[in-house]
Design goal:
Helix content is 92%, strand content 0%. By secondary structure, the protein is mainly alpha-helical. The protein folds into 2 domains: 158 residues; 54 residues. Helix 1 packs antiparallel against helix 3 and helix 3 packs antiparallel against helix 4. The radius of gyration is 51 Å and the shape is rod-shaped. The termini are far apart. Belongs to the PspA/Vipp/IM30 family. This is PspA/IM30 family protein. InterPro entries: PspA_VIPP1.
Length: 222
């Protein structure tokens, strides 16, 4: 019955921090704690229901016994009125037996009622504690997820600027410079390989262009 409270004390004590430190995944551990607590509550609810049923059964038996006491009292009075003392005596004798049984049943019922009231109170405390820890669980899970995200981002950021990444970037930069230098060199070589005839051919092309421009001017086709 009180296993639940022992578990709660463990959860809210420093042992929880130690267990979470050793846990591979604190979020999963918190979920497991809550499942265990919910299971304990269901178990206690079953015990409380049985105790309440027992209390009601004893109350019904006590009521029946007390009703029989009252009945025997009325019967004894009726027998006296009828002048039947023997019948009245037997009714009173049975009444006495029923009173003893009623007294015993009343004591049992009152004890069962006290136990039921205490168990109901404990169950209410359990449920309140569970709800309190449920809120705390949600907060801890959110903080754990946030911490995981920050850690992952920090690791990513640190890997971006490490020596290996920077050296790789510098190697690629040097290759680009090399490609550009080779392109410039090939253009220079191409220009150097031009012959004297190539240059005169370009000059003649320039003359034709000048003559074409003059003709268009003369014909008003500019």
């Amino acid at each position: 019955m009180f296993k639940f409270f022992n578990r709660v004390k463990t959860v809210v004590s420093s042992e929880l921090n130690s267990m979470l430190d050793k846990a591979e995944d604190p979020v999963k551990m918190l979920d497991q704690f809550m499942r265990d607590m919910a299971s304990d509550i269901r178990e206690v609810e079953g015990s409380v229901a049985k105790q309440i049923a027992n209390e009601k059964m004893l109350k019904r038996k006590f009521d029946d016994a007390q009703a029989l006491v009252d009945k025997r009292q009325a019967q004894a009075e009726k027998a006296i009125e009828s002048g039947n003392e023997d019948l009245a005596r037997r009714a009173l004798e049975d009444k006495k037996d029923q009173e003893q049984q009623a007294t015993s049943l009343k004591e049992s019922w009152e004890r069962a009622k006290r136990d039921s009231d205490q168990l109901r109170q404990k169950l209410d405390e359990m449920k309140k504690e569970y709800q309190s820890m449920k809120l705390k669980q949600d907060s801890l899970k959110a903080r754990a997820e946030s911490a995981k995200t920050r850690t992952k981002m920090n690791r990513t950021m640190s890997s971006i600027g490490n020596d290996e990444s920077r050296q790789g970037f510098e190697r690629m930069e040097e290759k680009v410079y090399k490609f550009e230098a080779e392109a410039d060199t090939s253009e220079d070589l191409s220009e150097a390989s031009r012959t004297l005839d190539d240059e005169f051919e370009d000059l003649e092309k320039d003359g034709v262009d000048d003559e074409l421009a003059a003709l268009k001017k003369k014909m008003g086709k500019e």
